[in-house]
Amino acid sequence: MSSRANGAAEAPDVLTLYGEPVQSRLLLGTSLYPSPDIMRRSVEASGASILTVSLRRESSRDAGAGSRFWDMVKGFGARVLPNTAGCHTPREAITTAQMAREVFETNWVKLEVIANDDTLQPEVFGLVEAAEVLCRDGFQVFPYCTEDLSVAERLLGAGCQVLMPWAAPIGTGRGLMNPYGLRSLRAYFPDTPLIVDAGIGAPSHAAEAMEMGFDGILLNTAVAKAHDSVAMATAFAKAIEAGRLAYRAGIMPPRDMASPSTPVAGLAFIDAARAS
Description:
The chain has helices at 3-10, 36-46, 55-60, 63-75, 90-104, 124-136, 149-158, 179-188, 203-211, 221-224, 229-249, 272-275, and strands at 15-17, 20-22, 26-29, 50-54, 79-83, 108-111, 140-145, 164-165, 195-197, 216-219. Helix content is 45%, strand content 14%. The chain is globular, with a radius of gyration of 22 Å. With 276 residues, it is α/β, with parallel strands linked by helices.
């Protein structure tokens, strides 16, 4: 048995983010659900320990609806990760993060600085700039970024201790568009928690990322827009668990040639000519 397999059986496998243990490796968004009840049941089915909440979306609600939503989220008992969704400049993102810290009473923030509205691709220059300011201000920043190694280096240098690379553009459900880039990111930063964020559309996508060694998956649309959100939340939870377990067990490498599972030595030899 490999050393990794031994470790899978013996060592505790707990994700730690900014010094805090997290029980579930599935992070779930709270937007787009058909109803509050479906969101509640989906969160429960997912077992998610962290929920993302957009300050801008909740601020746009009337005061009563926003208060009810916040009370419901607090009732889940999950950690809230406010995000700066919809921000296009570092200044917007910094201001939104500061407001979120007051509203949600947390230093955690998912930092988004968006380049354009068509792809919702991270604007990496502004992202690094905002991360530097927020980290100096005591925030614990979860930056939504690309799989670019130089951007990752800059974000870690700014003080981020977690990275959240995208798999594909937000809401597309296209899965891992650049597996090579994601594998390279994982290999270059083996000790940094890496959570795949955006573009995950099917449980198989999530399992594939976890099998690469990523530490968690953040998703929203694939569950919220499913025909049965509760069942889909359950499916993702199981896929993420299976992918993580497979990674720790040690996945066999692909081969160019067939390799028989039954050994040839010891098989009975039959003389076809005499048998006929």
